[in-house]
Amino acid sequence: MNTSPSDILIIGSGLAGLTAARVLKLAGRKVKILEASDAPGGRVRTDKVNGYLFDRGFQVLLTAYPEARNFLDYKALDLRSFSPGSIIFSNSGIDEIGDPLREIGSLIRTLKSPVGSLPDKFRLLFLRLKLADISIDEIFSKQETTTLQYLRNAGFSERIISNFFTPFMSGIYLEQKLETSSRMFEFVFKMFSEADTAIPARGMGMISAQLSSGLSAEELILNERVLSIDGNEVRTASERNYKAGIILIATAADCIPAPFQRIPIDKKSVTCLYFSTEKAPYHKALIALNANSNRLVNNIAVMSNVSADYAPEGKSLISVSLTDKQLLIEPESLEFKIKDELKFWYPDCMNWEHLKTYTIPYALPDNKHVTNDILPSSMRINDSTFICGDHLMNGSINAAMKSGRLAAEAILSI
Fold first, then answer.
1. For labeling, which of 14, 55, 99, 347 is most exposed (least CB within 10 Å)?
2. DSSP assigned state of 284
3. Parallel, antiparallel or unpaired: strands 297-302 and 287-290
């Protein structure tokens, strides 16, 4: 079946595709988005089940992201912020560190914390102040090394690297060896330091909902998986053919249609489990990090401590994120393994009710080499086909949105 031609056809309604559509529509161009799933958002979606909100994998919005500030209405998102700092649990017990520059009351507690030496903590302060004086463009123009080597070069001890940086950055990078680019580390650390770490009160999916709110049913076609592109024509699994003057591929790197697939795909996966309980393991709006080297669980967060909308009244919702070791465990024994590990610190976890598991094979692109900009020519595959996505720059909400904006600008320039 052939459909009527479109001006610009966008394949994929993740943050990159939605941002591109918004820029193009504001410029007066007619767009149509083809989305393979049943709702927009890509990797940034939230499911509501029995009064609980399940983000598809633990995610946060760093409100310092420049692109997010440009395109999102933070007030309408009703953002709820995590407290600055982290809970650290290890074989020696449970500890807590804060950010004394934003929460002066955490100063003594942080200085006394065994997570690192006193010089380590002063180095953390110096790093934060140094990055405050460096622009994002300067960060991404630096020579790259690994995050691990960067931290060692900065003089941090192995103790604070293993107790804090590794579990903290692993939750962001989705890899434990800290092989991710040092540019990515400086960028993320700067963003964490300069503003809030937040979630919309009703789930991360509200970001996608806000970006897609101006699209009509004719402009956003759901459950329409694209199989291939041939010139100005797109063929879908429903045996429909769509034609357009310009085609913009805005899928994840592992979903790019033929004949433009990129194989092999370097990517990071994650598994996130949600549990319910009447007794939260802790009551602060903090992320808890597992500092043990042989950990299965990387971090946990009591989502309902940050936003009460995440769970029904009288219940707490706990997000548990796993390292790549979950790949070695049978799914049916995963819940037991998690509880067996956590019971040392949180004995009541044996009574937690498992609600939902998300295994996300493609959660992030590989971030060993990253950039924060891309030439228009690099986004243009041929005369009528363009491409965008965080995989072209760096794995972040900011990069996804920026790539969509840059692709739209490249299209408008022809």
1. 347
2. S
3. antiparallel
74 pLDDT more than 60: yes
Q: Which two tokens stand for residue 143?
A: 């020579």
Q: List the one residue out of 173, 159, 176, 157 whose CA is nearest residue 295.
A: 176
Cβ atoms of 303 and 80 closer than 8 Å: no
**Does 3 have pLDDT greater than 60?**
no
Question: Considering the chain, what is the average pLDDT of its residues?
Answer: 93
Neighbours of 312 (CB within 10 A): 14
Closest CA to 221 of 33, 19, 10: 33
What letter does residue 192 receive in the DSSP assignment?
H
Angle at which helices 182-194 and 118-132 cross, to 10°: 90
Tokens representing 200 are 């919309």
DSSP 180: S
CA-CA-CA-CA dihedral for 200, 206, 210, 214, to nearest 10: -160
Rounded to an integer, the average pLDDT of 395-414 is: 97
- Collapsing DSSP to helix, strand or coil, 82 comes out as coil
Residue 237 has pLDDT above 60, yes or no: yes
Render 214-282 in DSSP notation, one character per residue. Answer: T--TTTEE-S--EEEEETTEEEETTS-EEEEEEEEE-S-GGGPPBTS--SS--EEEEEEEEEEESS-S-
Q: CA 104 to CA 106: how far, in whole Å?
A: 5
Which one-letter amino acid corresponds to residue 81? S
- From the list 120, 105, 133, 115, the residue with the least C-alpha distance to 194 is 133
Query: Is the pLDDT at 413 greater than 90, yes or no?
Result: yes
